[in-house]
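PROTOCOL LOG
Step 1. Enter all chains and additional molecules of the complex.
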Amino acid sequence: MKPGRLIYTLVCGITVLYVVIANARGFIPFNSTMGRGSSGYGGHSGTAGFFHK
Amino acid sequence: MTTDTAPKIKIIDCPNCGAAIPLRALGQSVMTVCASCGTRLDTSRPEIRVIKAFRLQQQQLHIPLGKRGTLRGRLFEVIGALRRGEQDGMWEEYLLFNPYIGFRWLVYDTGHWSFGRMVRDPSSITTAAGLMHYGGRYFRLYHRGTPQIRWVVGEFYWRVAVGQEVDATDYVCPPMILSCEKSAGEIIWTLLEYLEPVEVETAFQITSPERQWLAANQPNPAVRKWEAIKPVMWAALAALVVAQIGTAIRARTTTMAVGTYDLSHAQGEAQAYGPFTFSASGSMNELLATAPLDNSWVELQCSLVNTVTGKSYDFTNSFSYYHGIDSDGGWSEGSTSDISTLANVPAGTYKLIVAAGGQDKTGHPPSTPVSLSLRHDVVPWQNFWIGVLVILTYPGYLLYRRYGYERERWSEANPT
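Step 2. Run joint prediction.
Step 3. Record the structure below.
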Protein backbone atom coordinates (compact mmCIF):
# COMPACT_ATOMS: atom_id res chain seq x y z
CA MET A 1 0.00 0.00 0.00
CA LYS A 2 1.33 3.41 -0.98
CA PRO A 3 2.04 5.88 1.86
CA GLY A 4 -0.69 8.29 0.78
CA ARG A 5 -3.35 5.62 0.80
CA LEU A 6 -2.04 4.18 4.07
CA ILE A 7 -2.18 7.56 5.79
CA TYR A 8 -5.67 8.22 4.43
CA THR A 9 -6.83 4.78 5.60
CA LEU A 10 -5.48 5.50 9.07
CA VAL A 11 -7.14 8.92 9.19
CA CYS A 12 -10.47 7.40 8.12
CA GLY A 13 -10.16 4.61 10.65
CA ILE A 14 -9.36 7.00 13.49
CA THR A 15 -12.22 9.29 12.42
CA VAL A 16 -14.77 6.48 12.43
CA LEU A 17 -13.46 5.28 15.78
CA TYR A 18 -13.71 8.80 17.18
CA VAL A 19 -17.31 9.20 16.00
CA VAL A 20 -18.32 5.84 17.51
CA ILE A 21 -16.73 6.63 20.89
CA ALA A 22 -17.83 10.28 20.99
CA ASN A 23 -21.42 9.37 20.13
CA ALA A 24 -21.46 6.64 22.77
CA ARG A 25 -20.26 9.10 25.41
CA GLY A 26 -22.48 11.96 24.28
CA PHE A 27 -19.40 14.06 23.59
CA ILE A 28 -19.16 16.84 21.04
CA PRO A 29 -15.95 18.80 20.47
CA PHE A 30 -17.30 22.29 19.95
CA ASN A 31 -19.96 22.80 22.59
CA SER A 32 -20.61 26.50 22.44
CA THR A 33 -23.31 26.31 25.09
CA MET A 34 -21.55 25.03 28.15
CA GLY A 35 -19.30 27.59 29.73
CA ARG A 36 -20.60 30.30 27.46
CA GLY A 37 -20.28 33.75 29.00
CA SER A 38 -22.92 36.40 29.43
CA SER A 39 -23.57 38.49 26.36
CA GLY A 40 -25.81 41.21 27.64
CA TYR A 41 -27.47 40.93 30.93
CA GLY A 42 -24.74 39.53 33.16
CA GLY A 43 -24.54 39.21 36.90
CA HIS A 44 -26.27 35.84 37.27
CA SER A 45 -23.40 33.55 38.12
CA GLY A 46 -23.68 31.17 40.99
CA THR A 47 -27.08 29.69 40.28
CA ALA A 48 -25.79 26.30 41.34
CA GLY A 49 -25.08 27.77 44.73
CA PHE A 50 -28.70 28.82 44.97
CA PHE A 51 -29.80 25.21 44.74
CA HIS A 52 -27.57 24.24 47.67
CA LYS A 53 -28.72 27.09 49.90
CA MET B 1 9.56 -13.22 -30.33
CA THR B 2 12.28 -14.02 -27.89
CA THR B 3 15.98 -13.52 -28.17
CA ASP B 4 16.34 -17.30 -28.67
CA THR B 5 13.92 -17.38 -31.54
CA ALA B 6 14.88 -14.17 -33.21
CA PRO B 7 13.79 -13.89 -36.83
CA LYS B 8 16.29 -14.14 -39.62
CA ILE B 9 17.79 -10.82 -40.61
CA LYS B 10 18.85 -10.29 -44.17
CA ILE B 11 21.75 -7.95 -44.74
CA ILE B 12 21.93 -6.04 -47.99
CA ASP B 13 24.44 -3.48 -49.20
CA CYS B 14 23.20 0.01 -49.88
CA PRO B 15 23.49 0.52 -53.65
CA ASN B 16 24.27 4.17 -53.01
CA CYS B 17 26.90 4.17 -50.26
CA GLY B 18 27.69 0.50 -49.75
CA ALA B 19 26.74 0.46 -46.08
CA ALA B 20 25.22 -2.75 -44.71
CA ILE B 21 21.44 -2.48 -44.22
CA PRO B 22 19.75 -5.11 -42.05
CA LEU B 23 16.22 -6.06 -43.11
CA ARG B 24 14.41 -7.19 -40.00
CA ALA B 25 10.84 -7.39 -41.27
CA LEU B 26 11.53 -8.77 -44.72
CA GLY B 27 8.30 -9.81 -46.37
CA GLN B 28 6.26 -7.38 -44.25
CA SER B 29 8.08 -4.11 -44.84
CA VAL B 30 7.86 -2.43 -48.24
CA MET B 31 10.73 -0.02 -47.94
CA THR B 32 13.79 0.83 -45.92
CA VAL B 33 15.91 3.90 -45.54
CA CYS B 34 19.67 3.55 -45.32
CA ALA B 35 20.86 4.77 -41.95
CA SER B 36 24.14 5.95 -43.47
CA CYS B 37 23.11 7.96 -46.51
CA GLY B 38 19.32 8.13 -46.30
CA THR B 39 18.79 6.36 -49.63
CA ARG B 40 15.26 4.93 -49.89
CA LEU B 41 15.13 1.33 -51.05
CA ASP B 42 12.19 -0.73 -52.23
CA THR B 43 12.15 -4.00 -50.25
CA SER B 44 8.82 -5.24 -51.57
CA ARG B 45 10.49 -7.04 -54.50
CA PRO B 46 13.19 -9.69 -54.44
CA GLU B 47 15.56 -7.35 -56.22
CA ILE B 48 16.14 -4.45 -53.85
CA ARG B 49 16.10 -1.27 -55.84
CA VAL B 50 16.72 2.37 -55.11
CA ILE B 51 13.65 4.55 -54.77
CA LYS B 52 15.54 7.72 -54.15
CA ALA B 53 19.18 8.38 -53.30
CA PHE B 54 20.38 11.37 -51.32
CA ARG B 55 22.74 12.16 -48.54
CA LEU B 56 21.31 12.23 -45.10
CA GLN B 57 22.79 13.93 -42.13
CA GLN B 58 23.13 11.41 -39.32
CA GLN B 59 20.55 12.04 -36.66
CA GLN B 60 20.62 11.13 -33.01
CA LEU B 61 17.77 8.82 -32.04
CA HIS B 62 16.58 8.26 -28.52
CA ILE B 63 16.41 4.53 -29.31
CA PRO B 64 18.86 3.20 -31.92
CA LEU B 65 17.61 1.02 -34.76
CA GLY B 66 17.85 -2.68 -34.00
CA LYS B 67 17.45 -2.17 -30.28
CA ARG B 68 15.19 -4.72 -28.63
CA GLY B 69 13.02 -4.19 -25.62
CA THR B 70 10.07 -5.71 -23.81
CA LEU B 71 7.00 -3.53 -23.60
CA ARG B 72 3.82 -4.77 -21.98
CA GLY B 73 5.32 -8.24 -21.78
CA ARG B 74 6.17 -8.49 -25.50
CA LEU B 75 9.59 -8.25 -27.07
CA PHE B 76 9.90 -5.75 -29.88
CA GLU B 77 12.69 -4.57 -32.10
CA VAL B 78 13.04 -1.03 -33.39
CA ILE B 79 13.12 -1.30 -37.18
CA GLY B 80 12.32 2.24 -38.26
CA ALA B 81 12.15 5.77 -36.99
CA LEU B 82 10.86 9.03 -38.35
CA ARG B 83 10.48 12.56 -37.22
CA ARG B 84 7.34 14.52 -37.86
CA GLY B 85 6.95 18.17 -37.31
CA GLU B 86 4.48 20.97 -37.27
CA GLN B 87 4.89 24.66 -36.71
CA ASP B 88 4.82 24.25 -32.97
CA GLY B 89 7.03 21.23 -32.49
CA MET B 90 8.55 17.96 -33.59
CA TRP B 91 8.25 14.42 -32.32
CA GLU B 92 9.68 10.99 -33.07
CA GLU B 93 7.83 7.85 -34.06
CA TYR B 94 9.58 4.51 -33.71
CA LEU B 95 8.28 1.52 -35.62
CA LEU B 96 8.55 -1.63 -33.52
CA PHE B 97 8.29 -5.11 -34.91
CA ASN B 98 7.66 -8.56 -33.59
CA PRO B 99 7.05 -11.22 -36.29
CA TYR B 100 4.40 -12.94 -34.15
CA ILE B 101 2.54 -9.77 -33.18
CA GLY B 102 3.23 -7.36 -36.00
CA PHE B 103 3.99 -3.67 -35.90
CA ARG B 104 3.62 -1.25 -33.03
CA TRP B 105 4.48 2.40 -32.59
CA LEU B 106 6.46 4.10 -29.89
CA VAL B 107 6.01 7.85 -30.02
CA TYR B 108 8.39 10.22 -28.27
CA ASP B 109 7.49 13.85 -27.62
CA THR B 110 9.39 16.18 -25.26
CA GLY B 111 10.19 13.49 -22.70
CA HIS B 112 6.84 11.69 -23.02
CA TRP B 113 6.29 8.26 -24.55
CA SER B 114 3.21 6.59 -25.98
CA PHE B 115 2.81 3.03 -27.16
CA GLY B 116 0.48 2.61 -30.11
CA ARG B 117 -1.14 0.10 -32.38
CA MET B 118 -3.19 0.47 -35.50
CA VAL B 119 -6.94 0.15 -34.98
CA ARG B 120 -7.92 -2.96 -36.94
CA ASP B 121 -11.64 -2.36 -36.69
CA PRO B 122 -12.13 1.37 -37.42
CA SER B 123 -15.82 0.72 -38.09
CA SER B 124 -16.25 0.29 -34.32
CA ILE B 125 -15.23 3.92 -33.78
CA THR B 126 -18.41 5.92 -33.41
CA THR B 127 -19.27 9.54 -32.78
CA ALA B 128 -21.42 10.45 -29.80
CA ALA B 129 -22.20 13.99 -28.69
CA GLY B 130 -19.08 15.40 -30.32
CA LEU B 131 -16.90 12.69 -28.79
CA MET B 132 -15.32 9.65 -30.42
CA HIS B 133 -16.27 6.37 -28.82
CA TYR B 134 -13.96 3.39 -29.03
CA GLY B 135 -13.16 0.49 -26.75
CA GLY B 136 -15.54 1.69 -24.04
CA ARG B 137 -13.91 5.10 -23.86
CA TYR B 138 -15.04 8.53 -24.98
CA PHE B 139 -12.31 10.58 -26.64
CA ARG B 140 -12.44 14.35 -26.84
CA LEU B 141 -10.96 16.31 -29.75
CA TYR B 142 -7.59 17.69 -28.70
CA HIS B 143 -5.62 18.61 -31.79
CA ARG B 144 -5.87 19.01 -35.53
CA GLY B 145 -2.86 19.56 -37.71
CA THR B 146 -0.92 18.70 -40.83
CA PRO B 147 2.37 17.23 -39.65
CA GLN B 148 5.11 16.63 -42.17
CA ILE B 149 7.77 13.94 -42.15
CA ARG B 150 11.07 15.70 -41.62
CA TRP B 151 13.42 12.75 -41.36
CA VAL B 152 13.18 8.98 -41.70
CA VAL B 153 15.39 5.93 -41.29
CA GLY B 154 14.88 2.16 -41.26
CA GLU B 155 12.18 -0.18 -42.54
CA PHE B 156 8.49 0.61 -42.92
CA TYR B 157 5.37 -1.17 -44.03
CA TRP B 158 4.39 1.71 -46.26
CA ARG B 159 6.36 4.00 -48.54
CA VAL B 160 7.67 6.83 -46.42
CA ALA B 161 9.25 9.96 -47.79
CA VAL B 162 10.51 13.14 -46.25
CA GLY B 163 7.99 15.88 -46.87
CA GLN B 164 4.94 13.60 -46.76
CA GLU B 165 2.01 15.23 -45.03
CA VAL B 166 -1.08 13.84 -43.39
CA ASP B 167 -4.17 15.46 -41.93
CA ALA B 168 -3.92 14.36 -38.34
CA THR B 169 -6.60 14.60 -35.68
CA ASP B 170 -6.00 13.53 -32.10
CA TYR B 171 -8.74 12.64 -29.66
CA VAL B 172 -7.79 12.26 -26.03
CA CYS B 173 -9.06 10.17 -23.16
CA PRO B 174 -6.09 9.91 -20.77
CA PRO B 175 -4.01 7.81 -20.83
CA MET B 176 -5.12 7.07 -24.40
CA ILE B 177 -5.02 8.98 -27.66
CA LEU B 178 -7.08 7.99 -30.66
CA SER B 179 -5.25 9.39 -33.63
CA CYS B 180 -6.66 9.66 -37.13
CA GLU B 181 -4.39 10.25 -40.11
CA LYS B 182 -5.83 10.97 -43.53
CA SER B 183 -3.73 10.91 -46.67
CA ALA B 184 -4.48 10.17 -50.33
CA GLY B 185 -7.81 8.54 -49.69
CA GLU B 186 -6.48 6.43 -46.84
CA ILE B 187 -7.59 6.78 -43.25
CA ILE B 188 -5.49 5.21 -40.52
CA TRP B 189 -6.62 5.10 -36.90
CA THR B 190 -4.04 4.51 -34.19
CA LEU B 191 -4.64 3.95 -30.50
CA LEU B 192 -1.82 5.20 -28.30
CA GLU B 193 -1.36 4.63 -24.59
CA TYR B 194 0.83 6.79 -22.39
CA LEU B 195 3.91 5.07 -21.02
CA GLU B 196 5.84 6.29 -18.02
CA PRO B 197 9.37 7.11 -19.22
CA VAL B 198 10.80 4.59 -16.78
CA GLU B 199 9.00 1.81 -18.67
CA VAL B 200 10.76 2.74 -21.90
CA GLU B 201 14.06 3.30 -20.09
CA THR B 202 13.85 -0.16 -18.55
CA ALA B 203 12.70 -1.82 -21.76
CA PHE B 204 15.39 -0.41 -24.04
CA GLN B 205 18.12 0.46 -21.51
CA ILE B 206 18.10 4.11 -22.51
CA THR B 207 17.95 7.38 -20.61
CA SER B 208 14.86 9.34 -21.49
CA PRO B 209 15.13 13.13 -21.33
CA GLU B 210 13.26 14.97 -18.61
CA ARG B 211 9.60 15.50 -19.34
CA GLN B 212 8.64 18.96 -20.43
CA TRP B 213 5.17 20.36 -19.86
CA LEU B 214 2.05 18.23 -19.86
CA ALA B 215 1.41 15.59 -22.52
CA ALA B 216 -2.03 15.38 -24.09
CA ASN B 217 -2.61 11.87 -22.72
CA GLN B 218 -0.52 12.05 -19.56
CA PRO B 219 -2.49 10.43 -16.75
CA ASN B 220 -3.81 12.84 -14.16
CA PRO B 221 -2.01 11.91 -10.90
CA ALA B 222 -4.97 13.14 -8.89
CA VAL B 223 -7.19 10.64 -10.71
CA ARG B 224 -4.77 7.81 -9.91
CA LYS B 225 -4.70 8.79 -6.25
CA TRP B 226 -8.49 9.17 -6.23
CA GLU B 227 -8.91 5.69 -7.67
CA ALA B 228 -6.58 4.36 -4.95
CA ILE B 229 -8.46 5.94 -2.04
CA LYS B 230 -12.00 5.66 -3.40
CA PRO B 231 -12.78 2.27 -1.80
CA VAL B 232 -11.35 3.49 1.51
CA MET B 233 -13.47 6.63 1.38
CA TRP B 234 -16.69 4.77 0.60
CA ALA B 235 -15.96 2.20 3.31
CA ALA B 236 -15.28 4.94 5.88
CA LEU B 237 -18.43 6.84 4.94
CA ALA B 238 -20.48 3.65 5.13
CA ALA B 239 -19.00 2.88 8.56
CA LEU B 240 -19.83 6.40 9.67
CA VAL B 241 -23.45 6.08 8.49
CA VAL B 242 -23.80 2.70 10.23
CA ALA B 243 -22.35 4.19 13.43
CA GLN B 244 -24.74 7.13 13.25
CA ILE B 245 -27.74 4.87 12.60
CA GLY B 246 -26.65 2.77 15.59
CA THR B 247 -26.46 5.91 17.72
CA ALA B 248 -29.92 7.02 16.56
CA ILE B 249 -31.43 3.60 17.32
CA ARG B 250 -29.81 3.47 20.75
CA ALA B 251 -30.78 7.00 21.74
CA ARG B 252 -33.79 7.19 24.08
CA THR B 253 -34.78 10.72 23.27
CA THR B 254 -37.39 12.02 25.71
CA THR B 255 -38.83 15.51 25.99
CA MET B 256 -39.54 16.92 29.45
CA ALA B 257 -41.61 20.02 30.00
CA VAL B 258 -39.71 22.26 32.40
CA GLY B 259 -42.04 25.20 32.88
CA THR B 260 -41.93 28.95 32.29
CA TYR B 261 -39.87 31.84 33.58
CA ASP B 262 -41.81 35.05 33.98
CA LEU B 263 -39.39 37.92 33.48
CA SER B 264 -41.92 40.60 34.30
CA HIS B 265 -42.18 39.29 37.89
CA ALA B 266 -38.95 37.43 38.55
CA GLN B 267 -36.23 39.19 36.56
CA GLY B 268 -32.85 38.18 37.92
CA GLU B 269 -34.25 35.72 40.43
CA ALA B 270 -33.00 32.16 40.34
CA GLN B 271 -35.76 29.61 39.95
CA ALA B 272 -35.47 25.86 40.33
CA TYR B 273 -37.18 23.29 38.09
CA GLY B 274 -37.34 19.54 38.37
CA PRO B 275 -36.15 17.04 39.41
CA PHE B 276 -35.53 15.38 36.05
CA THR B 277 -34.27 11.85 35.63
CA PHE B 278 -31.56 11.31 33.04
CA SER B 279 -31.56 7.57 32.43
CA ALA B 280 -28.86 7.40 29.75
CA SER B 281 -25.27 7.67 30.83
CA GLY B 282 -22.99 10.02 28.93
CA SER B 283 -25.94 11.55 27.14
CA MET B 284 -26.38 14.64 25.07
CA ASN B 285 -29.24 16.91 26.12
CA GLU B 286 -30.85 20.10 24.96
CA LEU B 287 -32.63 22.94 26.70
CA LEU B 288 -35.08 24.73 24.43
CA ALA B 289 -36.15 28.22 25.46
CA THR B 290 -38.84 30.07 23.50
CA ALA B 291 -40.64 33.38 23.94
CA PRO B 292 -42.68 35.51 21.52
CA LEU B 293 -40.18 38.38 21.67
CA ASP B 294 -40.98 41.74 20.11
CA ASN B 295 -37.92 43.99 19.73
CA SER B 296 -36.44 42.57 22.89
CA TRP B 297 -33.80 40.19 24.19
CA VAL B 298 -33.62 37.47 26.81
CA GLU B 299 -30.70 35.83 28.52
CA LEU B 300 -30.96 32.81 30.78
CA GLN B 301 -28.10 31.75 33.01
CA CYS B 302 -28.67 28.11 33.76
CA SER B 303 -27.20 25.38 35.89
CA LEU B 304 -28.10 21.74 35.60
CA VAL B 305 -27.30 20.35 39.03
CA ASN B 306 -27.01 16.72 40.02
CA THR B 307 -29.12 16.32 43.14
CA VAL B 308 -26.85 13.60 44.55
CA THR B 309 -23.32 14.70 43.70
CA GLY B 310 -24.00 18.44 43.47
CA LYS B 311 -22.04 18.64 40.28
CA SER B 312 -23.38 21.39 38.10
CA TYR B 313 -23.28 22.12 34.39
CA ASP B 314 -23.42 25.87 33.84
CA PHE B 315 -24.50 27.30 30.55
CA THR B 316 -26.16 30.34 29.03
CA ASN B 317 -29.15 30.47 26.74
CA SER B 318 -29.87 33.78 25.06
CA PHE B 319 -31.83 35.05 22.12
CA SER B 320 -33.25 38.26 20.76
CA TYR B 321 -35.66 39.29 18.07
CA TYR B 322 -35.89 42.70 16.44
CA HIS B 323 -37.91 43.87 13.49
CA GLY B 324 -39.00 47.10 11.85
CA ILE B 325 -39.43 49.01 8.65
CA ASP B 326 -36.85 51.24 6.99
CA SER B 327 -36.31 52.76 3.55
CA ASP B 328 -35.62 49.27 2.13
CA GLY B 329 -38.84 47.85 3.53
CA GLY B 330 -39.47 45.45 6.39
CA TRP B 331 -36.59 43.78 8.21
CA SER B 332 -36.07 41.40 11.07
CA GLU B 333 -33.14 39.78 12.82
CA GLY B 334 -32.62 37.23 15.54
CA SER B 335 -34.87 34.46 16.75
CA THR B 336 -37.56 33.85 19.28
CA SER B 337 -35.93 30.69 20.62
CA ASP B 338 -32.54 29.17 21.45
CA ILE B 339 -31.31 25.65 22.04
CA SER B 340 -28.52 24.96 24.52
CA THR B 341 -26.62 21.72 24.20
CA LEU B 342 -25.43 19.81 27.25
CA ALA B 343 -22.99 17.13 26.20
CA ASN B 344 -21.60 14.13 28.06
CA VAL B 345 -23.96 14.36 31.03
CA PRO B 346 -23.91 11.27 33.32
CA ALA B 347 -27.10 9.47 34.28
CA GLY B 348 -28.77 10.76 37.42
CA THR B 349 -31.37 13.08 38.82
CA TYR B 350 -30.97 16.75 38.07
CA LYS B 351 -32.53 20.06 38.87
CA LEU B 352 -32.40 23.01 36.56
CA ILE B 353 -31.67 26.42 38.06
CA VAL B 354 -32.45 29.41 35.89
CA ALA B 355 -31.87 33.11 36.46
CA ALA B 356 -33.01 35.24 33.55
CA GLY B 357 -32.94 38.81 32.44
CA GLY B 358 -34.17 40.71 29.45
CA GLN B 359 -35.26 43.99 28.03
CA ASP B 360 -37.75 45.22 25.49
CA LYS B 361 -37.62 48.50 23.51
CA THR B 362 -39.05 50.42 26.48
CA GLY B 363 -36.25 49.20 28.76
CA HIS B 364 -38.52 46.90 30.76
CA PRO B 365 -38.39 43.11 31.00
CA PRO B 366 -40.38 41.33 28.27
CA SER B 367 -43.93 40.81 29.42
CA THR B 368 -44.33 37.34 27.94
CA PRO B 369 -42.87 34.37 29.86
CA VAL B 370 -40.07 32.19 28.52
CA SER B 371 -41.11 28.56 27.96
CA LEU B 372 -38.51 25.94 28.81
CA SER B 373 -38.26 22.28 27.83
CA LEU B 374 -35.54 19.65 28.15
CA ARG B 375 -34.73 16.93 25.64
CA HIS B 376 -32.75 14.07 27.13
CA ASP B 377 -30.45 11.71 25.20
CA VAL B 378 -30.73 13.38 21.81
CA VAL B 379 -28.80 12.07 18.80
CA PRO B 380 -25.53 13.98 18.39
CA TRP B 381 -24.98 14.95 14.75
CA GLN B 382 -21.94 17.15 15.16
CA ASN B 383 -19.51 14.22 15.41
CA PHE B 384 -21.00 12.64 12.30
CA TRP B 385 -20.64 15.78 10.21
CA ILE B 386 -17.10 16.38 11.49
CA GLY B 387 -16.29 12.80 10.48
CA VAL B 388 -17.78 13.34 7.02
CA LEU B 389 -15.77 16.54 6.66
CA VAL B 390 -12.52 14.84 7.69
CA ILE B 391 -13.11 11.89 5.35
CA LEU B 392 -14.01 14.13 2.40
CA THR B 393 -11.20 16.65 2.87
CA TYR B 394 -8.53 14.68 0.99
CA PRO B 395 -10.87 13.59 -1.84
CA GLY B 396 -11.94 17.23 -2.12
CA TYR B 397 -8.32 18.28 -2.40
CA LEU B 398 -7.75 15.65 -5.10
CA LEU B 399 -10.82 16.90 -6.95
CA TYR B 400 -9.36 20.40 -6.90
CA ARG B 401 -5.98 19.13 -8.14
CA ARG B 402 -7.68 17.05 -10.81
CA TYR B 403 -9.57 20.05 -12.09
CA GLY B 404 -6.40 22.19 -12.19
CA TYR B 405 -4.50 19.47 -14.03
CA GLU B 406 -7.20 19.01 -16.64
CA ARG B 407 -7.50 22.74 -17.09
CA GLU B 408 -3.77 22.89 -17.82
CA ARG B 409 -4.01 19.93 -20.20
CA TRP B 410 -6.87 21.38 -22.22
CA SER B 411 -5.39 24.86 -22.28
CA GLU B 412 -2.78 23.37 -24.63
CA ALA B 413 -5.40 21.85 -26.90
CA ASN B 414 -5.69 23.06 -30.46
CA PRO B 415 -8.91 21.55 -31.81
CA THR B 416 -9.45 24.00 -34.68
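Step 4. Note key features.
The two ends of chain B are 42 Å apart (CA to CA).
The helical segments of chain B are 197-204, 221-250, 263-266, 382-411.
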